[in-house]
Amino acid sequence: MQVTALVGSRRKNGNTAFISRKILEALRTALPSVETELLFLGDFDIRACTGCEGCQKSWDCIIRDDYAAIVSRIDAADGLILASPTYWYSVTSDMKRFIDRSYSLIQYPVSRREWISKYSGTGKLCVTAAVCEQHDESMMGSTLSLLNDFSRDLGIEAVASVKAIGHFDAGSVGGDSAVMEQAKRAGRLLAERLDSP
């Protein structure tokens, strides 16, 4: 069993990474046989989607960069963690480029009003997580909802979400017992769902 965490933050010891590691830690405690990896999208060369439609008959983006390597990890994974801090009311540019390029993972066999995803019916599961510096939850904007909508549109069920409000200093979220409990609970729930027949 494999779970891959995709982190949209470039702060490798920041709050988004901290939460992602806590989810993975709880997952491994509850399901010791699981293999996990944590990837920072900023470490990969992911170029912008050009809207060329070259992917629409193959599930493969024709832009040759590191995007395909990440997709191969999702292909192999049973579970996914999608995590991002809030930049201007939404996900980071690293996460947004990845999401935009994932247009290649859906196709329109009948019309533009209906689509199918490469992962529909695969049983893949997801946990989403978002961090916002401000204490007003509305300042998180679409960060968490975008990650949840993206997961859904890819045919990957989001089983839990973690929301951290009012955290900027790297690692400060570790002192927030409520957020840490959210992360642990998300990891345990993911383990439970992955382990169920």
Automatic annotation (TrEMBL):
The keyword Flavoprotein applies. Residues 1-119 form the NADPH-dependent FMN reductase-like domain. One of its GO terms (molecular function) is oxidoreductase activity. The keyword Repressor does not apply. Gene3D superfamilies: 3.40.50.360. InterPro entries: Flavoprotein-like_sf (IPR029039), FMN_Rdtase-like_dom (IPR005025), ISF_SsuE-like (IPR051796). Keywords: Flavoprotein, FMN. This is NADPH-dependent FMN reductase-like domain-containing protein.
